[in-house]
Specification:
By secondary structure, this protein is an alpha/beta fold. Helices cover 40% and strands 23% of the residues. Helix 7 packs across helix 8. The chain is globular.
Amino acid sequence: MTANVKVSIKNLYKIFGSDPKSALVHAKNGIEKAELLEQHGHVLGLKDINIDIKDGEITVIMGLSGSGKSTLIRHFNRLIEPTDGQILIDGVDVMTLSDNDLRKLRQQGMSMVFQKFALLPHKTVLENAGTALRVRGESSENADQEGRKWLDRVGLAGFEDHYPHQLSGGMQQRVGIARALTSNSAVMLMDEAFSALDPLIRTDMQDLLLELQKELHKTIIFISHDLDEALKLADHLVILKDGEVVQQGEPQHILLNPSDPYIEDFVSDINRARVLRVRSVMRPLSDSTAAHAGTVDYNDTLEDVISHSDGDTSKVYLVKNGSEAVGTICMKDLVRALVPRAPSEDGVRGQVNAA
């Protein structure tokens, strides 16, 4: 997996209204969203968004309803035109693309998985899976071959001749993922792709995505309003509020170092033992020959370590990454990491689950 930037959003603004360019001046001068609407009759959708999305990673963009996350994802392939700013893909500003080049980007460079599945009801599962290749003008034989391959990978071998209405919601979304993978695009856009599914099916789909990602290393931009899902999937997490980025970074870092009271409240009720990893809490290795209660993997959750310790807070474990000793973790440090910086007071967490 490389660390090269695949997609870069720079100083992006989106304002909805009759004269967004005039309202842009006020937005750049710092006017708040509510004031822009009240005083100038325009809605501030996105304000000065700056995000670098690395090649081969999952970037999760999350926030409450109205935070701008779905508006933002539709800017990547210019389904929504920005009021101001740049959208760079492999260093090329998509705002400079001709109609033909933009069409190629949408057909070949990016695929999209929707919340509502968006399958063609009159087409079979196999025909749906090969849609992107058929649109490009490739042969039905090649589209079917690729479609079968990816349907098999998402667990739908044998369902090729079924129609969408004959499948469960989870199975339909698997078809959507297979369709995106069949397109062989470098970037996958996933707009609340699992939020319409039942909790157990949703967990299965998250696990499937992570399993495929270990092999494929796609650049995935995933929209979610669910913090548990975001922390599970994200290599890079971006949290929006009222169209602005409040905090972004590695999820473990955000959980341990919230940047302001809004983020503190956002993460206060999360099950930290299931989310935090040993690598985020361990101390640097000083003496690997010192007495330890055992070894743990640096990607283990704190919940895993607690089960090893039987609740004994005096224990210290040697942390290994593969066969290499990389640090130590003290149970007392672990316990401190389980306590959020501030308790939830204004119900943000509840709003997230209801979003």
